[in-house]
Amino acid sequence: MKHSYPVENLRGLAILFVVLSHEGSVRGMPGVGEYVHFFLSDATSWFVFISGFLFHHTQHDRFSYPRYLARKFQVIVLPYLLLSVIAIALGIALSRPQFLGVSVPGYVAWSLVVGGAMVPPLWFIPMISLVFGLSFVFIRLSRTWLIHGLALVGLVFTVFSERPFENLNPLLALLHFIGFYLAGIVCSVHAPAIARLKGTPASRVLMVAGAVWFAVAATGFFTFGQTANTFAEGLGHLNFRQLGKVGLLVTVFLLFQEFLDRPNPVLGYFARLSFGLYFIHGFLMLIFQKVLERAPIAQSPSLVYFAVETAFVLGLSVLLAEAAKFTLKARSRYVIGY
């Protein structure tokens, strides 16, 4: 199994997009904030695409359902459960059960199922856990031509639907994002053919087409705005953000195939750190919003405020992940996924 450096580097870029898109100060950039946010937002779709690619790339010839689930439980679900203890305790301390009108046991159970009840980015783990559970279906589909049609249908559904409200329904989130996961599998199936596009006119044409696709989607978004805020509202309505992410993914994926098919120390590092950042940055985001947004620094010029938030959320996430790695050694993977 050949290591895929373009996908590794794309994973590093995707986690940076995810973290930066969650920073409130991005939209506050004078004149360009909304455009930068549109460029960065919904990078979770790329994460899902990468998950599908790596699933097939690493498992297509050695898949064992029990072993696969056991591994995912150790490095993704177990850290989620451990960190959820902190998130749920914080929610209880802030009287979230009373606010929602549920009992404390009900709040605990609901929080574990939806993930993002208190720390928003944690919603991703219940959703991707459903994907892990269906892995035996995906590995069978990857051996048939049916996967191509399903990936196309899934992507069409993605761009004509919306995330569930506040990302608090993992099943609806799965339906919304599954097209990207299946597309990742398809790209892994055809990885040798995609690699042969490197340096060809066809690759250049596809890169330009993807960029134009993204520009058209951006124009649509800033002309018509976001058409829906919930899964139900979004059904049948064009999702310009996801449409743009499809086009941009084509361009970036092919660019990385051509120019980053080799180790990159920065992107490779963030790729290895990706789940650690995903787990930690949500807590720091919450602290920043609750504490520092009320401090005098919040009155600073927008670019200064963005730099401060990035240093706090991204920089401190990296430091905490490395501190956990240094302290716990290999066991840190079972606590923060890194």
From TrEMBL:
Name its cellular compartments: Cell membrane
Q: Which UniProt keywords apply?
A: Cell membrane, Membrane, Transmembrane, Transmembrane helix
Q: Name one GO cellular component term.
A: plasma membrane
Q: Which domain of life is it from?
A: Bacteria
Give the record's membrane topology: Multi-pass membrane protein
Q: Which GO terms describe its molecular function?
A: O-acetyltransferase activity
Protein's UniProt keywords contain Secreted: no
Q: Name one Pfam family in it.
A: Acyl_transf_3
Q: Which PANTHER family match?
A: O-ACETYLTRANSFERASE WECH (PTHR40074:SF2)
What family does this chain come from, according to its entry?
Answer: Belongs to the acyltransferase 3 family.
The protein in question is named: Uncharacterized protein
Source organism (scientific name) = Piscinibacter gummiphilus
Taxonomy of the source species: Bacteria, Pseudomonadati, Pseudomonadota, Betaproteobacteria, Burkholderiales
